[in-house]
Model the fold of this input.
Amino acid sequence: MFTGLIEDIGTVKNISGSKIEIETKLDGIAKGDSISVNGVCLTAVSVNKGCFAADYSPVTDKITTLSKLKQNSKVNLERAIELSSRLGGHIVSGHIDGTAEIKEIENFRQFFRIVFSCEENISAHCVGKGSVAVDGISLTLSSLLVSGFEVFIIPETFNNTIMQFKKEGDKVNIETDIIAKYIEKFTSKKTNSISLEILKKNGFV
Done:
């Protein structure tokens, strides 16, 4: 589990097949630790000084942007939270729902306004003023659009994540709010529709 507060910008040292090796300034990483890489929860399978390696499955490859990374690509990194940690962002599982495309980037009064386009399976779980993780970054939706959403990013977040390297047309990993997904699951259960026959059977008419 993560918070969406990025701890380091790592550098891809090598990526081949289903394995990725990343250089990082983060310390205390051990084999078996969960690490969010651009929002994707990966497990460190080996750790050397200043570097860790992780494997990712074909499913992860299909629905995320990991396969688009190259040697020297920059990535957002966050270690899994501890039970004693403050939850400064929002609850992020590291399980990506899909990708979105950056349509607009605008410098707006020291903030950065970014517009994303996405598929309906993602926008369906987006709520105005709600939370979304973009490449692992915890952000607040400023508004919903017909085929996407808009966010405003503060300079601190922009300058300390890989958002500073993004351009229009780039794809990003998206994880929608887990609470919204649970609510949809529980409220979409099929119930018997009310009919005149049911009302008569139960003595209402």
In short: The chain has a mean pLDDT of 91.
